[in-house]
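Working notes for the structural subgroup meeting. M.R. asked for a predicted model of this chain before we commit to crystallization trials. I am recording the input and output together here so anyone reviewing the notebook later can reproduce the run.

Input as submitted:
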Amino acid sequence: MKKNIAIIMGGYSSEVDISLQSGNIVFDHLDKEKYNAFRIHILKDKWVHVDDDNREHPINVEDFTAIVNGYKIRFDFVFNAIHGHPGEDGTILAYFDLLGIKHSSAPFYQMAVAFNKRDCISLLKPYGIKSAKSFYLNKEDEINLKSIIDTVGLPCFVKPNRAGSSFGISKVYKESELIPALEKAFLEDAEILIEEFLSGIEVSVGVIKYQGHIKVLPITEIVSENDFFDYDAKYLGKSKEITPARISEIQKNKVSEVARNIYQSMHLKGLSRADFIFIKDEPYFIELNLVPGLSSESIIPKQALEAGISLSALFESCIDIN
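Returned structure, recorded in token form:
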């Protein structure tokens, strides 16, 4: 009997449209001979199953079921394609855990830590993972510009601590630009991470569990036409994403080992993508994405295809219903 797979997409953050793109890619490529796939929109004002005729069927939040054509649909597995809150930060996964429904993402705690840039960096430091100098701010904290600059220098990056797709990020060159950058970031999150600027080759490394084994995918080099890898560079074609990356064998081996180490030490599962900057031959960790983009412009699908893994096989590798 075919299993019912709920592909959750949307979410409550600025990444809602990107998440809908990712979720629809999963829906289009999931093998319909093996699975009954259902598009589930998780939005601020509604949770609904959207059928092939774009008709909406409300989700019963008490047991995560839907009534479709008079039949109650129960889901055997949830494929998480929600970027941002409540999917990428693990919030909705705790709900599925309570209901006893398996899902494609790492456990709730790991998701929450990875989504919090500061906490993720702190967790990985004891494992020898190098990262940029940083300064952390809460929205209610007193802002001391001198202290920030003394810690991270200029230029620096101002980032929402818990957001993705480069929303709210600014590259700051002079002190007068800091306050506007902070205000922009606070529109996305009440917590901010300010990091020193690292100049070097930027790469993205996908790691997955494939056929029972941890697999590091071909590495992607990111060359942005803009000042950094911002939203336009990621989604509007303002960058070159070169797979495999034009890096040395030493760099390739080092960053692959670090990415694998992150996946193993955090006890991850499903899809992951870690971003790094090379300082000479040393990879410096930027951030970890446990619900990476799956649209046609996204990195993980391109890496999988380079590795000879079809999107159907990639998505099936995330489904564990035994």
